[in-house]
Amino acid sequence: MKKQLLLFLGILTFSISSAQTFTYEGINYSVTGVNQVTVASNTTASGPLNLNNAVTDGTNVYSVVSISDYAFSGSGITSVTIPNTINSVGNFAFENCTSLTSFNSGIRASSIGNSAFSGCSSLNSITFSTRVETIGSGAFENCTSLTSITIPPMITSIKNNTFYGCSALNSIVFDESVTSIENNAFAGCSALTSITLPKWLKTVGTGAFESTGLTSVVLPDGLTSIGFGAFGGCRDLASVTIPFSVTSIGNYAFNFCTNLNSISCSIVTPLVINANVFSFVNQAACKLIVPTNSVNLYKAANVWKDFSPITDNSNLKVDDFSLQNKIQLYPNPAKNEVFLQLQSLKNAQLQVVNVNGGVVISQQLNNTTNTINTTNLPNGIYLFRVSTDEGITTTKILKN
After folding, report:
1. Which architecture characterizes domain 22-146 according to CATH?
2. Residue range 189-229, pLDDT digits in tens
3. Contacts with 380 (C-beta within 8 Å, 6 or more apart), sequence order
4. Which among 143, 137, 92 is positioned nearest to 122, based on CA atoms?
5. CATH of region 323-399
6. Is the pTM here over 0.85, yes or no?
């Protein structure tokens, strides 16, 4: 038996090593495992690209599971449709493919690598897999023909420079699962005039929206941090709403917002900030609206006192708590059960959604500890969406 096993392993090793790279229908592939290949270097490819889900080297049949780093970098391809077997697109995979106009990631791809499509100046259409969990830094940097983007539902963070310099981008649809927008993520998106930020956003990074065309910004309740230069250079920005949850505003956050004329700030006690937060803002002609009983505090606070007029508004939220703070889900990762606790929430309903968007569990909730039976769910990532009279919140749970 031992000799037979060694013979089998020897044959398997020889089979893999003897076919490390091969070409099928004009596309180069590299063997990565038993019956699996990655799309290898094809920098001379051109025209429409329709990859196969299975290929052969003349002896063995392989499933195409990934696109390697730099696979089509600088090539002349014009469109890409990838098969449902592919689960990842490598770093710089389509970098500087200046003739590429469209990309469809299929239904399985879970990650898009760093700078995967950077410099694709003709790219105007992207269809993401609902399974995409990671879009790498600079993935679509300087895609100057891209006009709209829908962030897939599994993404929690928009990475550094992801859409930097996308000068035609004028529409972004976020899923509510996004909690952070990192440094320079949308900087230089000069056609972006309006945006609805995701409900559970916590941080806006350095230069995240620098030099965009935004005219107004309503920052969501629950946001805690506005980064260095986050909205710097937004010369058309006329109004800003800052929620009570913000605990820090970075230097130059609104630098050169020369048309800013109204700020609604729900923070009861003025934050200590640097004067450069509002550099080149005409504060003497910019109205500051603050909570009732906070006017005198702002009139006495450095930097804030320079706004005029400073008025109060009793309708500003000052004591809300994030809906997420009223909902607890555990354990995560989970096995056979998930426990869900609610605090004083009415008409609560749970939907558990798989990565394909299908509802696999639907359950009415009560204000005690609810037990969610996950025994029959295949291992993977699920969205637990809780809807109540106060709103909807979504949490990712890993079942293993």
Report:
1. Alpha-Beta Horseshoe (3.80)
2. 999 999 999 888 889 999 999 999 999 999 988 788 999 99
3. 354, 355, 398, 399
4. 143
5. 2.60.40.3080
6. no
